[in-house]
Amino acid sequence: QHQQQQQQQQQQQPQGARPLPAVGVVQLCPEDLEAWHQAACNFEMNTDFDISGPRCFDLASLVATMKAQSAGKRTIQALADKLTLHQLLENMGIVQMPVLLAIEGVAEKSAVDEVLRENLCKDDAMPLVAKPTHQSNATGVLILSRPQDHEVDSCVEYVTAHMQKHMTQKAGEHESAALRSLRPGYLIQPKYESVVGFKSPLELRVVVLWGNAYIACWWWGRNASPSEVPHRNAWLVRQPAKRGAISEEDSWVLAHDHPGGNVGHDKAMELFQLHIREMADSAERVARAVGAPFLRTDFFVGSERWGVRLNEVAYGCGCDYRVLGLEGIPGLLDAGPAMAQILQDGMGLARRFPSQHFLTRLGVQGSTYEDLSISELPLEQRPKICSDLKESKMLPRGDPSICRDYLVPEDLCQTPKNVNVEVEAIVN
Fold first, then answer.
1. Segment 68-87, tens digit of pLDDT
2. Whole-angstrom Cα distance, residue 158 to residue 374?
3. pLDDT (tens digit per residue) in 181-212
4. Nearest to residue 26, comparing CAs of 321, 235, 423, 319?
């Protein structure tokens, strides 16, 4: 049966479902490289993010080094832990999904029972998501919808047992040392649902280098398989308004090699372009607040109720990063080597500060992750870098009337077969 399902899904893949390979790598001109050097000079770097060892010439090798050297770095651990991350973001004033229940160590059946009955057992109940705070990807995630009245008790039993089971597990060996060291926990939150009807909500990953957003990615995987759909991958790349300078006037160029014919994909691209500036602004604020020279920040997009919401952050990322090729030359270029160069060059230029310089002003107490606690900060005590976020025009907020214009049912989020792959660029 599993083989039949795989064959059926593979048959549904359009021709050209595998992404076009990169036709080359990005070559930074001296002026653009100088702009990123200047960004590093102006950046206050948290020493928890320092990288040592031989120079890496590709991003994958550099990310592997970053993950290996993350052991015992409490800032990286705090960002990887979804509960402490939520508390840090609250103290930054960043808009995120609300937490209905936070659990550390032991899943109390009474607490689970109260949350599920209050939020799922009513006529207008919306789905919830339960996710581990100490894992990555979808490991241990549960989607909860309204149960029948006679199923409530068994639902509570199942959810409690599921949580307790996954809180005995740690992240896999392929994950960072910081992630593998996290204390176990769970969060229950409202499930984010986008108006574009893919099975998963729209999520854009924004990568910040030295306090400035460099590229954003809608990532569907690398290999054409039942669990990955790489021809849907798309990138938004920062395009400087002036060569050799990074500024608020910069635009964003959309690049992808989707074959076309998928209304949902088209509408998703429009939504990402509509919100990229506010997402980039929030991602930059987070990276600067914690002193991270490299940080990936993921945003949910396209909900009538919630608007744009920060979902999680990641230190290091295994995605591919692509930009448009040279004018007149079709295909996409690999931006990974350029990103590795920017990051490593900046290590010798940035101003270094110990982790307490950043964490104390975010309400953190404790000298290690194991004894770390976070106090809620009133607005007037938030660090200056975040204090004006509530009034910022870049604040991610929802507009139901806008979202309705992008409504696409699930049956229109499929790519027809026999469509040729093309590379498209749109400037926002």
1. 999 999 999 999 999 999 99
2. 31
3. 999 999 999 999 999 999 999 999 999 999 99
4. 321
